[in-house]
């Protein structure tokens, strides 16, 4: 992140406060870090059993955005954490996500920055690797990315597909949107209905992973499990088409399709 140009002002590791690492100060608590640096974003790499507490600690400091990279946070922990963060009005991205990147400006996460070129396409993805793949395809079409958000693949996440879509619809630097979803849950249908209800203001291209996934089995992400007929890839694609989203059946078609609709 530092090499990409992100203004990383410090780190937090309990009992290691006062040290320096990568030329930045280390603090014992997030509260101290925010107090002495004025940081407004926290990125969390804390192991699963402690990550929920880390998110809530960051929330209490008054930072505006929290990005949780950690995978495998217990659902019970995230259920409490989700409501705590929402009550405080803080934007949580993740957990189990690659983070956020605005190309050539700032990267808060673990994505390969070289794959992202500056432009006017907004990317939203549950999958990290498919996010990078889509960014590369967009660049190969002579386009670029305004901002890319990896929302995460866990059952309970801070920023939903619909919320991310709304942010891009209101963003003056974004002309089109790509949604990369997967089987399980109702995030993509909720986003599709919102897009239709709000007049399809910008073109949206969608891809849903998991066409061949067997019912009842978790596939990759903890949230990628078909619990009913509406959770299947085909059901989601059908609904998204009805709501005016341009659906592709292969991730290889994402870049070409967004170029066509723009």
TrEMBL record:
Which parts of the sequence belong to the CoA-binding domain?
1-73
Which UniProt key words apply to this protein?
A: Ligase, Nucleotide-binding, Tricarboxylic acid cycle
* Active site residues of this protein: 221 (tele-phosphohistidine intermediate)
Keyword match Nucleotide-binding: yes
Keyword GTP-binding recorded = no
Look up the record and report any one GO term of the cellular component aspect: succinate-CoA ligase complex (ADP-forming)
Biological process terms from the Gene Ontology for this record are: tricarboxylic acid cycle
User: InterPro entries in the record, alphabetically?
Assistant: Cit_synth/succinyl-CoA_lig_AS (IPR017440), CoA-bd (IPR003781), CoA_lig_alpha (IPR005810), NAD(P)-bd_dom_sf (IPR036291), SUCC_ACL_C (IPR005811), Succinyl-CoA_synth-like (IPR016102)
- GO molecular function terms here? nucleotide binding; succinate-CoA ligase (ADP-forming) activity; succinate-CoA ligase (GDP-forming) activity
One Pfam match, given by its short name, reads Ligase_CoA
The family assignment reads: Belongs to the succinate/malate CoA ligase alpha subunit family.
State the protein's name.
Answer: Succinate--CoA ligase [ADP-forming] subunit alpha
